């Protein structure tokens, strides 16, 4: 029985087994022309895969991974509601890894939602580009010392203000667009020289902190709440001032979510 | 499989899904849209996925059907469009194809010339490495139909790519 083109194709695709595979293999071994045809079959597969393989190495769009993460988070919430014994849940202390997973999933969900509502609420830009003009009219770097030192959030070290206590912990651990709380991280970036810096809003004060030799050195600070006049600063204006200042300090674009996570894992060491 | 496992596996599948989408659509922007729709659909209907079966085959099937729907809708649209503005549409499609050909080189060019049904068979078996049985199930045709499409597609590619293949 001769070996047909279909046989050869099936053999090359690994579809044959047992006696059928042996028969074709024997025929190929005995016939250089068949062997050459099998070669072209295999070359074709290699050429096709070679041409398309680079696509699998392209970065996957964040919109896709976020969509999946959001779905995972939703379901997890659902599971929590569905799981009946609340008392059992309380006594079973959740270990740290589970917490981290939940946080990142929840964060992804928020990001996906935030994206959808983007235009409506005009959130802080993840990328630079807006508000640079505002920077010119700013006075940054006021509020040195007096208000924060001794409160536990800021201390002085070698003549520089460094974050301590809860502020330092928040700068170490929180991600931008993380859950609202006392501290909000507005953006993370690297400045010239490679130090990691973070724009934060701590309610009573906001600023830009850069990690140097293990400390969060406060490069810029702004009063967050009342100004001397007693008027409330317009919501978001401190933030946009800081973002503009950050843009000037930054070398390149702010960190994206993945870069930020990676930097956190490395303890913000440059 | 837990939902988290499902989501993890789906995420791990994304690079390959993007490749298959590019092969089906031969257009980067279309491929991105197709991936988006496919992932949405897969998440929405994840209860229908049978544990123990291959997740990749299931998702590929969703993607493939989604694309067929899109192509049909476009054909309807372009027919209407051609009646109104004959010629214009054709010229645009040509330009766009030309761009994408450059991107994938002569292999991409050869792939785009295949009829859709041969191209999907080639993509599934020769590129993605599915068995004939799995590929036939993804497309929803008997295995004999799959192998004959594959055979014709393969021959055309060999002719076209000549010495390089």
Structural class computed from helices and strand pairing of chain B: mainly alpha
Count of discrete structural domains of chain B: 1
Approximate strand percentage of chain B: under 5%
CATH class of chain B: Mainly Alpha
Low-confidence stretches of chain A: 81-104, 119-126, 129-151, 225-235
Q: Which strand order spans the largest sheet of chain A, edge to edge or round the barrel?
A: 3-4-5-6
Q: Let me know the largest β-sheet of chain A.
A: 4 strands, antiparallel
Please give the radius of gyration of chain B in angstroms: 17 Å
Into which percent range does the helicity of residues of chain A fall? 40-55%
Q: What is the overall silhouette of chain A? A: rod-shaped
Number of DSSP E strands of chain B: 0
- Oligomeric category: heterodimer
Shape of chain B: globular
Major sheet of chain B: size, sense and barrel closure?
none
Classification by helices and strands of chain A: alpha+beta
Assign the CATH topology of chain B: Butyryl-CoA Dehydrogenase, subunit A, domain 3
- Low confidence ranges of chain B: 84-99
């Amino acid at each position: 029985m001769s070996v047909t083109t279909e046989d050869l194709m099936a053999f090359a695709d690994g579809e044959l087994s047992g006696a059928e595979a042996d028969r074709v293999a024997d025929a190929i071994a005995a016939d250089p022309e068949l062997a050459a045809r099998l070669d072209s079959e295999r070359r074709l597969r290699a050429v096709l895969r070679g041409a398309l393989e680079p696509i699998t190495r392209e970065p996957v769009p964040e919109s896709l991974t976020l969509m999946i993460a959001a779905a995972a988070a939703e379901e997890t919430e659902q599971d929590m509601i569905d799981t009946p014994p609340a008392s059992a849940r309380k006594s079973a202390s959740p270990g740290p890894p589970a917490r981290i997973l939940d946080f990142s999933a929840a964060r992804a969900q928020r990001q996906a939602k935030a994206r959808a509502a983007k235009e409506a609420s005009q959130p802080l830009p993840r990328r630079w580009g807006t508000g640079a003009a505002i920077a010119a009219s700013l006075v940054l770097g006021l509020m040195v010392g007096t208000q924060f030192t001794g409160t536990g959030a800021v201390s002085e070290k070698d003549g520089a203000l460094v974050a301590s206590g809860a502020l330092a912990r928040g700068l170490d651990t929180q991600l931008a667009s993380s859950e609202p709380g006392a501290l909000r991280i507005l953006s993370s970036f690297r400045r010239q020289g490679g130090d990691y810096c973070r724009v934060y809003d701590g309610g009573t004060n906001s600023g830009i902190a850069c990690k140097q030799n293990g400390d969060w050195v406060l490069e810029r600070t702004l009063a967050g709440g009342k100004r001397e006049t007693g008027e409330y600063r317009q919501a978001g204006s401190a933030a946009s001032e800081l973002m503009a200042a950050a843009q000037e300090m930054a070398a390149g674009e702010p960190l994206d979510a993945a870069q930020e996570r990676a930097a956190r894992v490395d303890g913000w060491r440059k | 499989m837990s939902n988290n496992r499902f989501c993890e596996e789906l995420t791990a599948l994304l690079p390959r899904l993007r490749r298959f989408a590019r092969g089906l659509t031969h257009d980067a922007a279309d491929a991105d849209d197709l991936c988006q729709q496919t992932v949405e659909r897969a998440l929405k209907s994840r209860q229908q996925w049978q544990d123990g079966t291959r997740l990749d085959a299931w998702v590929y099937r969703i993607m493939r059907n989604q694309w067929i729907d899109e192509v049909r809708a476009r054909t309807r649209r372009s027919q209407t469009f051609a009646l109104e503005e004959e010629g214009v549409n054709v010229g645009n499609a040509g330009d766009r194809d030309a761009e994408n050909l450059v991107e994938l080189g002569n292999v991409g060019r050869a792939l785009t010339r295949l009829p859709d049904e041969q191209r999907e068979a080639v993509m599934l078996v020769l590129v993605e490495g599915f068995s004939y049985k799995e590929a036939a199930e993804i497309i929803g045709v008997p295995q004999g139909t799959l192998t004959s499409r594959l055979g014709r597609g393969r021959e055309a590619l060999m002719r076209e790519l000549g010495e390089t293949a």
